[in-house]
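dude i think i finally got it to work??
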Amino acid sequence: MPRLQITDLTLRDAHQSLIATRMRTEDMLPACDRLDQIGFWSLEVWGGATFDACLRFLKEDPWERLRRLRAALPGTPLQMLLRGQNLLGYRHYADDVVRAFVQRAADNGIDVFRIFDALNDVRNLETAIDAVKQAGKHAQGAISYTVSPVHTDRQFVEMAVAMQAMGCDSIAIKDMAGLLKPDAAASLVKALVDALDVPVQLHTHATSGLAEMCQLKAVENGCATIDTALSSWAGGASHPPTESMVAAFKGTAWDTGLDLRALQELSDYFRDVRKKYHQFESEHTGVDTRALVNQVPGGMISNLVSQLRDQQAEDRLDAVLAEIPRVREDLGYPPLVTPTSQIVGTQAVLNVLTGERYKTITNEVKLYLKGHYGRAPGPVSADPRRKAIGDEAVIDARPADLLDDEMERLRGEIADLAESEEDVMIYAMFPDIGREFLQQRRTGRLTPEPLLPPNECDDSQNSVIPEELKATIHGETFHIRIQGAGHVSDGQRPVYVTVDGVPEEIQLEVLSEWQPQGQARAGDVAQQGPPRASGPGDVTASIPSTVVEVKVKPGDRVKAGDPVVITEAMKMETEIQAPIAGVVSEVFVSKGDSVNPDDALLRIAREGE
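look at this
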């Protein structure tokens, strides 16, 4: 019997789960020589939120990170997570972009590509799998594991057989929310092993407290490889500890052969590294069994709480958690993983807060129901479909078949800043922050966010700071709770906050001292936002959100139901429709404005009024 293999996730998913992907390359490199000598089957180092965090916060080139890790880990295969046709973004890309991205990733150092689709629609995996094989690399097809009346071991096995037929070299069970239970793990792994000619790997999170038992049962039933993280970065929303699983199988038929003492020394190193990032530690560090009941991952919970707090409706959380399974059922039981978790969660919030199910429907739900994300796993309820898209036809083809090639357009749009094809890919994945990053690199202004020194967690001197507020950053609205502030230095003041429940640090440039409420200085002018909605022609948002687009101007004639404003909340867009027919008399908002449910975004007057 072959030895059990291990993929260690410390350099990617572990710190993504625990400190919002903030570990810097400079803290990875000193351990690479020892990591390379352990004998892991692979090291996951890239994918997921790597691009976003590197560009937005760390001001690192993610491609340069990959090249440096490749050079420092010559003896160990490097692995990445790829969202199929979505790559690392939140939309489907044309096939030429998928092929170009995979080739660049392979050329820069990726050996193993774990490829998944949020709907388990294998059509969305075809191009990525083929591109990996064309690049001569290992293609691992991943099953997005979930539990529902339409998801069965037989269905998962059929998907795995289809991925094997497409050329996959191995199959992974991707249990992103920690829903897997020991008996279910045993049953599914056995069914997959019996049906496949390629190895099976298990990826699960420790959120619910069942992960180690699931891995034991999986290995006993033929699982060839398990995913773990060094113990200093394990547990909670992360993964089972590498050392513990190595010790558990030592002396058995599945002995990994890995050096426990060497692993412990590596874990000690990374334990000290973790202390540097204490400001980013998540509040969700322990066992949370709620996911087993409502299938809501921990990160999704914090977003829901934030939205409800903004609406002064935190007491509605239980109602939202009860609504999420109903929305998921209406949409055909999609697994709750990016982007479907945001699609389902936001719609559930809207259903609860508006008091009427599907009174307001996000654009993403409409696109989902039209088939733009792929084929729903189960039957979709007729009433939400009718309210969202009426009699519009549902796409039955592979969504990417409807997309024209994009690479030439993307190259042209970023030609002023791109110095390589890798730069074009940075822009393709994240156009706004990608362009900003490339501009800052061009002008020598790449400065990573500062790390908070130990024990400098609070300082009440210098300025009056609000305890709680809402802020719009990069077009997204976040709920911010102030934890404390540091000293002013060189005109900059660090403020320590939680953003949607995740610890962060922001730097404020001190131009003047804030005044206590009610003590405005002479000459101050009160900033005026939109007026309060008061009439039938006032257009309003359903929840606190950010204006993405105003589609009309004063003097335009509209019919009831015409789209007039697009807003965004929780990364989902909502098309707000005219409540009455008439003429737009006033517009009170513009792109980027933050709005509340009682704000009038614009006003429509009936003809003749």
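The two ends are 83 Å apart (CA to CA).
im so relieved honestly
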